């Protein structure tokens, strides 16, 4: 599998991909998460591997099998993802953050199951670390940093803001409201945004989108 189908145009490159959701515990029974399936990130990791790269995949819990010939590290929380990524980042040439990281986690985790009572329940939440922002702030010379952006409105404008704020080289934006885009399903509709360009791809399989995203990353690296 590693040998067929793709030209080895990523041979010698070290690539870190993050994928999947994070899970933030409320108590021993419950957690807060999102709809990420990991498919886009796993497609990216698989295509990188087939193109000859040395791939590390830091992944939240998913239902899909881990790609072969990839160093996979499974994490659950945003905190665990942050620690794993911090460890792995310095030796990477390309980092692609496809994971859907929780922005907030419950401030207190109950050691016992929370029992229901009369009336409403509110859970105090605190911010998680912005892993991508950390990577942008600590980017080493020559390292290429690609984020993802999930929006339901003002996609380009909001994504450009993230590109700048997090010191990214590229951000891949998708609009959850477009048919065939986002979390559900095997397809995606993405716009690849760099400092001086915006390229909108039509609806395609997540694997094909991964190929196109990586083509663009390699093109940027050669500039
Ligand atoms: N990200 C991250 N750590 C976080 C939150 C997000 O590394 N705590 C990364 C995601 O992996 C993604 C990018 O930041 O590559 C953008 O995520 P997104 O949720 O679209 O944007 P946010 O910056 O979190 O802003 P908001 O959710 O408010 O739109
Ligand atoms: Ca977010």
Provide a descriptive summary of the structure in words.
It contains five helices and 14 strands. The longest helix is centred in the last third of the chain and has 17 residues, at 206-222. Helix 1 (39-50) packs across helix 5. The strands form four sheets. The protein has an eight-stranded mixed sheet with strand order 5-4-1-6-9-10-12-13, sandwiched between helices. The protein has a single domain, classed as 3-Layer(aba) Sandwich (Rossmann fold). 26% of the residues lie in helices and 25% in strands. It has 223 residues and is an alpha/beta fold. The model has no long low-confidence stretch (mean pLDDT 95). The chain binds cytidine-5'-triphosphate and calcium ion. Residues 78, 97, 99, 101, 103, 128-132, 147-150, 162 line the site of cytidine-5'-triphosphate (CTP).
Please give a handful of descriptors for the protein shown.
single chain; 223 residues; alpha/beta; Rossmann fold; 8-stranded mixed sheet; two-stranded antiparallel ribbon; 5 helices; 14 strands; 26% helix; 25% strand; globular; binds cytidine-5'-triphosphate; binds calcium ion; metal-binding; EC 6.3.2.5; flavoprotein; FMN
Short description:
The chain is an alpha/beta fold and 223 residues long.
Hetero compounds: cytidine-5'-triphosphate, calcium ion
Which of globular, elongated, flat, extended, rod-shaped describes the shape? Answer: globular
Provide the CATH topology.
Answer: Rossmann fold
Per DSSP E runs of 2 or more residues, the count of β-strands stands at 14
CATH class: Alpha Beta
* Order of SSEs: EEEHEEHEEEHEHEEEEEH
* Strand numbers in spatial order across the main sheet: 5-4-1-6-9-10-12-13
Through-space gap between termini: 31 Å
Structural class: alpha/beta
């Amino acid at each position: 599998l590693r040998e067929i189908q793709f030209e080895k145009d990523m041979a010698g490159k070290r690539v870190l991909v993050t994928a999947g959701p994070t899970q933030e515990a409320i108590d021993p029974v419950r957690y807060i998460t999102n709809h990420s399936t990991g498919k886009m990130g796993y497609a990216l990791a698989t295509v990188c591997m087939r193109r000859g790269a040395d791939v590390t995949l830091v992944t939240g819990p998913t239902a899909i099998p881990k790609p072969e010939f990839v160093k996979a590290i499974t994490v659950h929380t945003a905190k665990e993802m942050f620690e794993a990524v911090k460890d792995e980042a310095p030796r990477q040439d390309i980092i692609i953050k496809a994971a859907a990281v929780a922005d907030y986690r419950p401030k207190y985790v109950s050691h016992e199951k929370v029992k229901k009572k009369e009336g409403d329940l509110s859970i105090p939440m605190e911010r998680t670390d912005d892993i991508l922002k950390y990577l942008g702030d600590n980017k080493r010379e020559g390292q290429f940093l690609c984020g993802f952006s999930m929006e339901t409105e003002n996609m380009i404008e909001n994504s450009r803001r993230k590109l700048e704020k997090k010191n990214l080289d590229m951000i891949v934006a998708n609009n959850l409201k477009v048919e065939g885009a986002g979390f559900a399903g095997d397809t995606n509709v993405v716009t690849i945004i760099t400092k001086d360009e915006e390229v909108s791809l039509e609806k395609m399989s997540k694997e094909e989108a991964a190929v196109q995203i990586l083509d663009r990353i390699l093109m940027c690296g050669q500039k």
